[in-house]
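Reading group handout, session on sequence-to-structure problems. Before we discuss, look at one worked example. The prompt was deliberately terse, the way you'd type it at a terminal:

> structure mannose-1-phosphate guanylyltransferase

The input record follows.
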Amino acid sequence: MLSEQTLLQDTALRGVAAGLDAPIVICNEAHRFIIAEQLREIGVTGARIVLEPCARNSAPAIAAAAFLVAEQNPDAILWVMAADAAIQEQKLLMDALASATQAAAKGYIATFGIKPTKPETGYGYIERGAEVADVPDVFHVSQFLEKPDALRAAELVRDERFSWNSGMFVARADVLLSEIETFEREVYGCVQDAVKNRVTDHDFERLSSDAFSKSPNISIDYAVAERTKLAVVVPASFGWSDIGSWDALWELTPKDADGNAIFGDVFLDCAKNCYVRSDGIVATVAGVEDLIVIVTGDAVMVSHRDRAQDVKKMVARLTAAGRPEAINHNRMYRPWGFYEGLTQGDRFQVKRIHVDPGQKLSLQKHFHRAEHWVVVAGTAIVTRDTENILVRENESIYLPLGIIHRLENPGKIPLTIIEVQSGPYLGEDDIVRLEDVYAR
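And the output record:
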């Protein structure tokens, strides 16, 4: 069963439970504010949020983390985790981590091999070899296998030598870097330069775009795990699931008598084994089986559960078509809070803006739109050219096209306003920032 925290928060809290130092989070620039907010919500302080200028897969990202740690302590042991896994048995996880850490201290690169519970075709597999002589319950890796077809998966699940590849690694920083340099010298050099020439941006660290973008796009599995002689596996059964698809969420979620898992405002009739989630409007599903139905504020997805992994193909098609839904969510987080679209039409757009206590937006102007702000909760200070105007709940203010303006929350509670934009162009890139406390 999933917890009430996000997967990112659960991942960070595992490090807290293990008594580790504050995490290093390698992420895309677009996710930096929501990550910072989610860590703040669970009380994780001191995290280093490192921004990738472009996506280059897991090997460059892990190399960046290893370089950062090695600056202070090359012998430090890293626990590398993606933030999209669910784990049910925390104590068993900690027991497996203790074995992996012991192996890592001796110079091995340890991963967790999860005992299969079904013939899964969405995961890679690990074949274990002989037991490591000086580390109990840890085995040399005989081979890594790619995601199998259904027939091969059925064979593997019956063979006790094979386990699911969790994609988690435990290793010393210097060992990781040495193996990356051995097998992927270009990745090593590019990321080394990107880390060396990083810049600090408010609470974030930005890797050098010129250097990082030149790195090969390659996963840590292809770059190191499948080639190194140092790979070992810790067999484990701590209730791990890679939440890489909606079908995986269906498996982890409590279900009704007909096998349906639902979230939000959902009504079902004669439906079986479906996963239905609505984050807004009511969703009704009738007379179907084995479907995934996801309703959000800006898109609807319907898929057979057997094809849930194909969502990546649809995202690629949306990206190729230039659709903003492929990369932007309806709710967009910023360092001062968030905004979300409510409705949009020809020459107008309505948004809800949430500003955290003590925060303020940039001093800015627009060339193509005017704005009307209505305060519905809290109190605002609005800069309008040379004026500073106090706007209370149920009051409003008009900002003509071209006027210099800023929104600030001076109070102790969140500020919520409804913003009505009007004009011939309403894109987010029609912002001229004149001053910004977040150095954007």
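Points for discussion. First: The longest helix spans residues 90-105. Second: The mean pLDDT is 92.
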